[in-house]
Amino acid sequence: MNQSSHRQRSEDSQAPACWRRTWFALLLLSMAPLLCTAPLDGVAAAPQDDAFPLVPLPQEAGAPDDNPTTPAKVELGKKLFFDPRLSGTNEMSCATCHLPEKAYADGRASSAGAGGQQLERNTPTCLNVGLYPSLFWDGRAETLEEQALIPIQSDVEMNQDLDELEEELSAIPGYVQEFQDVFGTKPDRHGVAKSLAAFQRTLITKPSPFDKYLRGDKDALSADAIRGMELFQGQAGCIECHHGPLLSDGNYYRLGVSYRDDGRAKVTGKNQDKARFRTPSLRNVAETAPYMHDGSLETLRDVVTFYYRGIPAVGPGGLTPDTSALTGQSFSEIDLLVAFLESLSGEVPVVEPPTLPR
């Protein structure tokens, strides 16, 4: 929730946003009229902002040409997602930190990784990740296929050697048959990545009250949520960074939450990227507490209050946030914005834990 009139960026502050994501944002904006369906007869549609139009969430994620989504591949990916044998100790699965009952987050400030050590960052949700232009808080992966193997190999997360993983899966007849059926090969890391990506692309939430309002149902939002939406688009300026189908611009910003983590700089190696993190999606945000890259804010009200009063003017080493607090705004607006944020939750896909091959 960053406001243009409060920006304190230097000329290079947009360096973290690569051209690929810039064109992605422009593409989304150009597609906005196509993504919005016509309003219902006799019902006025939601007001639209000229610069950043409000866009409903697509109900399907596209797949790359080299990894088309198929039911068999999704089923294999689901099994792998829930299988603790993807970790070095056979005790941790993807679902250990991405719990379906927690909207595919885990409800903790940060998760416990390999050997019980506390991880550095808050676990993001897997919901709607098939629509993301980049993955991880620092954007180190640009596709789900690339992302899938990173936590598996990480010595602080699942700590699994990929050669050993291939051997282990190849010793399980059920997986041998499924990989042969889906990919025509024995179990390997490429099939693991493609299957996990295919499964995650199915984790699209159903239309939220916000989406229904955009499509013309004027009763879908409460009066408080509508007023919060107006603030979101207007005086609070949240929409400048939270726009598009995901309500995220996919760019990286320094908010002064914590300077201990180098953030995007770990990927780019650039000093100006220190403590910058990707704008998170606000879809189903009411279900994925706690918040910020370090999980330091417990509730949505805490987050909105932070933007209204808590952003520091300067940080260690002279690093400055890319936005300043909304000191001219009233605290009475906070509950209205929270009401709007709560309206962004759509029904989470029901996924029953599968029976794993033995």
Structural class: mainly alpha
Tell me the strand percentage band: under 5%
Gyration radius (Cα, Å) is 21 Å
Q: Give a short account of the largest sheet.
A: 2 strands, antiparallel
What is the global morphology? Answer: globular
Number of E-type strands? 2
Order of helices and strands: HHHHHHHHHEHEHH
What's the oligomerization state?
single chain
> In the CATH hierarchy, what is the superfamily of the largest domain?
Cytochrome c-like domain
The percent range for helix content is 25-40%
CATH architecture of the largest domain: Orthogonal Bundle
Number of domains: 2
> Remind me, CATH topology of the largest domain?
Cytochrome Bc1 Complex, Chain D, domain 2
Please report the number of helical segments: 12
Low-confidence stretches: 2-48
Protein described:
With 358 residues, the protein is mainly alpha-helical. It folds into 2 domains: 4-58 and 209-342, Cytochrome c-like domain (Cytochrome Bc1 Complex, Chain D, domain 2); 71-200, Cytochrome Bc1 Complex, Chain D, domain 2, CATH 1.10.760. The chain is built from 12 helices and 2 strands, in the order αααααααααβαβαα. The protein has helices at residues 19-35, 71-82, 94-97, 144-153, 162-170, 173-183, 189-200, 209-214, 223-233, 265-268, 300-310, 334-342, and strands at 252-253, 277-278. The chain has a two-stranded antiparallel ribbon. Helix 2 (71-82) crosses helix 7 and helix 9 (223-233) crosses helix 12 (334-342). 43% of the residues are buried. Residues 2-48 have low confidence and may be disordered.
